[in-house]
Amino acid sequence: MDFNKLIARAKNILLTPKTEWPVIAAEQDTVQGIFTNYVMILAAIPAVIQFLKLSIIGTAIPFLGNFRLGIGAGITQMVVTYVLALGVCYLMMLIIDALAPTFGGEKNQVQALKSIAYANTAGWIASVLGLVGILGSLAVLAAAIYGIYLLYIGLPSTMKCPQEKAGGYAAVTIIVAFVLSLVLGVVLASVTGLSAAMSGAMTGGLHSSSTYTPDKDSALGALAAMGQRADAASKKLEAAQKSGDANAQAQAAGQMLGAVLGGGAQVEALAPDALKPFVPDTLGGLPRTGFSVQKQSPMGVQVSVAEARYGSGDGPSYELTVSDMGGAKGLMALAGFAGVESEQQNDQGYEKTYRQGGRLTHEKWNNSGSGEYTIVLGDRFVVAVKGSRVPNVDALKAATGALNLAGLEALKTQGVKNG
């Protein structure tokens, strides 16, 4: 690894991007080379900064003092943040490549990875300023905006698109990246332990060929399949682009994202009323004291969530969350491809992720009397029960087992329309 070359590249793309992009586009490189020599190094900066901020320096909370996340939890958060950055970068390479013909460009995965990797340089480096308070936050925001500008002026060089179409190309890319980051964040938060397995898939499975085909039964193979679906769905977007109909373009963009994240299908998440039967009036012998249900559809990615609280006062209490990740069922399936299993213990409790009866399961217990038990059903539904002041984790398992899990899982194909 030539760090002098890396530093020079980062400096040039930030200070003289108009002359640096043609140089970048002309370089002979590989997907593996760009990831290993650039992305994996710079993407680690915000992850490490977040760890320092949360677990070493601490975060000031008004009236409560300085809060520090435990070292173990901080390291876990750092790894998840890092893997998320790598995952989004890889997926965006596939999507930028798939979108190229829509905007008059030429498909090329290596050039697509250059586009997203070097445009991200400003944000990755500026994350260091996150340690200096509000001014640092403003600087990070400015860097993000500058990154959009870098992408805009870089796409004509890397993807060979006409300059007049670069603005639309960059805009669609940024919107997809934003929604993808949100959805991946939700999925990773729902399925604790995915980070380690995905890390190996993202970083260890890359080969030197720019057109290599990963094992279809691997996490990286699932990601590659998402890119292929983006390629197919982009044809509708290209037709809409030619029509000049803004509404048709927006609809086609949403359909493309939905098809990619939905595992090759357009998925209509369950209506709020359809989730209500799976939120009982009592749980673990405690009455329901609060309830809410909602359905959201950012950029065609439909998600429905029902939440309920049980118990009150100083006694035992439960929080139940039933989520239909319909619009992101492809990402939920990715958890299955990753085949995660992990376990850790300390003097305060334990946490583990495993498969039980074909279902991805996560349980966490704190010896103070609190914990959570989460199950993924049909690569689509996430059922989580959190308990406070309960006797043991078996109480959480019993409460979860009393739910109509089989009935919910039986709905895994409802609203699924194969593209």
Gist?
This protein has 419 residues and is of the alpha+beta class.
- Biggest sheet record: 9 strands, antiparallel
Distance N to C terminus: 43 Å
Q: How do the SSEs run, as a string of H and E?
A: HHHHEEHHHHHHHHEHEEEEHEEEEEHHE
The best one-word shape is globular
Helix content: 40-55%
Q: Mean pLDDT across all residues, rounded?
A: 75
Residue stretches low in confidence (pLDDT < 50, at least 5 long) are 191-214, 334-339
- Return the structural class: alpha+beta
Continuous helix count: 16
What does this entry look like structurally?
The structure is a single chain. By secondary structure, the protein is an alpha+beta fold. It folds into 2 domains: 259 residues, no CATH class; 147 residues. It contains 16 helices and 13 strands. The strands form 3 sheets. Strands 4-5-6-7-12-11-10-9-8 form a 9-stranded antiparallel β-sheet, sandwiched between helices. α5 packs antiparallel against α9 and α8 packs across α9. The longest helix is centred in the N-terminal third of the chain and has 29 residues. The two termini are 43 Å apart.
